[in-house]
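glutathione transferase: structure tokens wanted.
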Amino acid sequence: MAPVKVFGSARSTNVARVLVCLEEVGAEYEVVNIDFQAKEHKSPEHLARNPFGQIPAFQDGDVVLFESRAISKFILRKYKSAEADLLREGDLEEAAMVDVWTEVEAHQYNPALSPVVYECLVYPATRGVPTNQKVVDESLEKLSKVLDVYEARLSKHTYLAGDFVSFADLNHFPFTFYFMATPHALLFDSYPHVKAWWGEAHGEAVHEEARRQHGCCCRYQGLSERANVGDFCVALLIIIM
Ligand SMILES: N[C@@H](CCC(=O)N[C@@H](CS)C(=O)NCC(=O)O)C(=O)O
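Answer:
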């Protein structure tokens, strides 16, 4: 069977979101690079996969998809197993909480955090423009308010959707990973439960817990050690060097 194809570069956060899910379910896949310099993402061939001319696009047999969160859910549904049940669709309430915190990532967390990543890392490296400090300051103010909500939630539950690891947590991986390489990573120090959720020390505990619960799966830091997500980390190093 032809392997699953992910179109786009692993250095893109939205592509990485999809790769992290493929890694979690252990599916075979191939990353097909799309050359932005050559405007390959705006080519008729790629527009047929993603009409907005963006990455990622995804192909699994006859199924062609775009939008990284929708692709991720497709992967987690199709390749679900007893070890990797990250949408919890067997339980109406748990699945609803996964949806709630997946939406929170998309509509609250990401809009507040991603401008800091773009301004501090991406734009200076790819466009040669200096960081716009006003944008960063405004975003950090918004992010602090979002993190207040996360802190309250994570002081009651180990993970966002409840006391189980889910797509809601995983979905935060790519942008948070980059954020932690900005000069503003220390913001998380003011939020002990959020820090623990993300942080290295707890990352070990999360890993242990996941192993106990599911018998497999690296989360967060562990994910970055895996081969293809490793490309994403290498890309990060290139950006911050
Ligand atoms: N909501 C989309 C966003 C995709 C997106 O913004 N992709 C960026 C790269 S990270 C892109 O292709 N940018 C090129 C463009 O918009 O022309 C998703 O989650 O897949």
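The chain has eleven helices and four strands. Residues 4-79 form a domain with the Glutaredoxin fold (CATH 3.40.30.10).

Cheers.
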